[in-house]
Amino acid sequence: MRNSVFYVISNFKQMLFFLFVFQIQVSFSQTFEPSETTYKNRLGLAQEVKGKNGELLTGVIHFSNGELTCREGKIVQQIEFYRNGNKSSVANLKDGKQHGLQEFYYKNGQLQMQFTLNADRPIYKKGKKTWNEGQFIEGNLVCYYQNGTIQLEEFSNENGNLQGIQKYFYPNAQLRNQFQYEDGTLNGEQKQYYENGKIKREVFFENGKLIRQRCWDEKGIEMLFCK
Fold this sequence. Notes:
Blueprint: H1 2-5, H2 7-21, E1 59-63, E2 66-71, E3 74-81, E4 87-94, E5 97-105, E6 111-118, E7 136-144, E8 150-156, E9 164-169, E10 175-182, E11 185-186, E12 188-193, E13 199-206, E14 209-216, E15 222-223
């Protein structure tokens, strides 16, 4: 019964995999010469960005598929582009790690996902939602469908755990699921809706434990048993 109630939680795990697939590939080295040949196929990040004469670079370095913004030899932002010229991702960095606002885009230029990373909390702990190198996702995470409507909204607290209301939407912007979290644990009333807007399921959790639930069919008739 519990598995049938929270099939969307498994979808959320798929979303984490989705995040992992789209994360920026980072390869570290001590120095590199800013030549398009070196990074023609994939951008890399260096701990120090030096010119051919060994000077620490400041400014924007352009490559065939992106650009790096540097300050005194340190990369503070990396932008990658699709072949059509639209941005595919924007990553802000701090000391060689992704930090601050991160954005990903569809090929048509529509924003796909944005969230904030905290590179000052690099320790991975089981059960925490993390990104590359163990940075915690903090604050709001928003995902969009290609038509521009919101797919997912959620908030992670300073510990990297889900906090408050998490919402999933259908492509037509109709609310699909609404979950409530308390420091990463389901707590309180959870709701699921059909695409026509009618209530599908109401579930109540107390500190992660299922207490009760009610279910309805697409016509709004309450069912004796929840599937």
